[in-house]
Specification:
- The chain has 368 residues and is mostly beta strands.
- The chain folds into two domains: 30 residues; 239 residues, Beta Barrel (Porin), CATH 2.40.160.10.
- It is built from three helices and 17 strands.
- A 16-stranded antiparallel beta barrel has the order 1-3-4-5-6-7-8-9-10-11-12-13-14-15-16-17.
- The protein is globular and about 60 Å long.
- The relative contact order is 0.15.
Length: 368
Amino acid sequence: MKATVSRALKTSLRMAAVAAFAAAAGTGAHAQSSVQLYGQVDTWVGMQQFPGGQRSWVVGGGGMSTSYWGLKGSEDLGGGYKAVFTLEDFFLPQNGNYGRFTGDSFFSRNAYVGIQSPYGTVTAGRLTTHLFVSTILFNPFIDSYTFSPMVYHVYLGNTATPTGATYGTDMGIVGDSGWNNAVQYSTPDYNGLSASIMYGLGNQAGNNGAKKWSAQFLYFHGPFAATGVYQYVNFNNSPGDLVNVPAFGTIVPFKSQSVAQLGASYDLKVVKFYGQYMYTKNDNLTGGSWHVNTGQGGVTVPVGPGSVMASFAYSRDAGGLDQTRRTWAVGYDYPLSKRTDLYAAYMNDKLSSLSTGQTVGAGIRAKF
């Protein structure tokens, strides 16, 4: 009798779920809405040695791009207006954990909702920063946290980690590649030119002095592309963008940080050139300040069915920990299809007063 009731209950639940899905699908079709599932899985195998550290052989996630999956959708509201949303979660394919590291939030890549109109788009939630977009679009290794020299200098240049590292630097930016509690306005595209502005709130009583804002322009015209970004971050006491991760801002107690970055690329078909310059000004709680100059140059060259990538980045701080950092990388990307590619790369990372760091490996990336 219990088995019969259990089967009947399960059948009823399945029928209710199907009916609810069908009703939702019908409503969505009537409202001209759409939802898309997408993402990528990237795993690499190789050796990693951070400056001043020892070698380790690893199976890692995100050799060329951080693995993630996402859902995004839109609903036509009429009159050229649309409601839009995006939810995106990073994950580690080598162990199945969500996020980029222990303590990362679930939808840490993006989590926002907004309105798109003929006059631009307004979104609110957790948003990818303008500086991150500028950093990855104008270097040959794009968003690789394993092999991109510019990503190392910008996003792994002010931390007592990354995972497994023992060195400390004060030459990168404070905070994450995404901002919590943020609102953004983006203009429509005007013949390849677009702009956006973003503001992040402290979001707690008594924490109104903690704020973040940035502005960016992007320009794409034929073989030429360029960007300019300004980012300002202010904290009441110490950086808190990554609440559960004692990494960013632990070297020096920051009060505020200003960053300006320019980037450009030019595609000659036989070779594509990339260039970036970044100026960082830091203010700490004791009243002192220091600045950092960072530059990156790189190329991609079509060779056979794939392309060779090469990049060199240099950073020098005036004050602070008084360091220099030189990082270069070469690699080859081989497409198996439009969605799947193989890659191999080598990176050399030299931080003043420490032994040279090296990373070498090969991996596979599949998009869906």
